[in-house]
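Work Package 3 (structural annotation) set out to generate three-dimensional models for the target panel prioritized at the project kickoff. During this period the team completed the workflow that converts sequence records into discrete structure tokens, so that structures can be stored uniformly alongside our sequence database. As a representative example, we reproduce one entry of 416 residues exactly as it appears in the project archive.
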Amino acid sequence: MPSQQIDMELMTPLMENPGGGQEEEDSEVDQDPELLPVRHQELGNSHQGITFTQALIHLLKGNIGTGLLGLPLAVRNAGVIVGPLCLVLMGVVCVHCMHILVHCSHHLCERLKRPPMGYSDTVAFSMEHSSYQCFRKSARFGRHLVNFFLVLTQLGFCSAYFVFLAENIKQVVEGYQGVNITLADESLSFANTSMVPALVPLPTMVPSEPWALDLRLYMLFFLPFLILLVFMKDLKNMAVLSLLANVCMAVSVIIIFQYITTDFGDLQRLPLTSPLAKFPFFFGTAIFAFEGIGVVLPLENQMKEPKRFPMALNIGMGITIVLYVVLATLGYLHFGDDIKGSITLNLPHNAWTNQMVKILYSFGVFVSFAIQFFVPAEIMIPPVQARLRESWRTPCEMILRGLLVCLTYRQPPDVE
């Protein structure tokens, strides 16, 4: 068939395997994309791994983090119309690139008869089997470059989570210590002619004399807990914790929606588009929010049924994109130009529900730290373990994980 000939010509650089009998079989695989994940699964361990639901939970946890809370500010820098449209476009491009990455990994595993590959292996073997000589010569460099940027970005996310976690708990603790809980009127009153109690006013928070501790002390407090968290090396064992974190973040987002949908003010005051000079600020914040591409292959490689991962990817990223666009748009419509770097900073500090938002979301970010940390740990630790005796590998891994967490501890920025 002409279509088969064209397809074979395009795939020639990745099919340099000796043996004519295998070539016909590979041709049939090319014509049926559904076979690629199945045979890819057979090269790995199909008896252990995470389920479809667990992969979806981890995928949501790996994508929905602190970047979500900054998206209303991103929309302010792009405009009411341009901002949401660009978020949708960026989300579609991001999902498309994730699918390309997974498909390339499947294809290389099939052609080279190798076990499931990671991000850097996929890039390196793609370059090695390229039709361009310059790419083939640079395959080793490409592997190291991808690993470097993966470690840099993922540890950067972890560092941002570290500061966010400490900052939010600091606000909650000092807000609690700096207020007295009182009732608006009398605590309880009874009618003169009956014992039916009147309506009891809700408790409010009245400011008293505040005090503050250095943010670095809060970060030091969380440091040992984060180290213990990353000692959980198996994503399957983290599924329950990740599910609980997703529930907490969902509750906090619902509370935020309940607040921002009460009043939108004068919508005509908001610009449909912002000056072009502000668009880079929108782009930077939005790119930070779409932070999950680094965890795609690690999740797919640990699934019992990798052939179902594309469906999990579509569902998870679809939920993520809708949540991003809706929260970013409604948050900006409600607060307008007064929107801050994190929408939680715009919530009133004298309501318990708003304090609960910070606590619940902080727990979700706490678990997200381990999901994002999984990628640099898988890149940096195995090469070191390979040089050690078997008895030293487990203690060395624990030490390296602790040191990497300590590396994410940094001087918090001055946000005043």
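Residues 33 and 279 are 39 Å apart (CA to CA).
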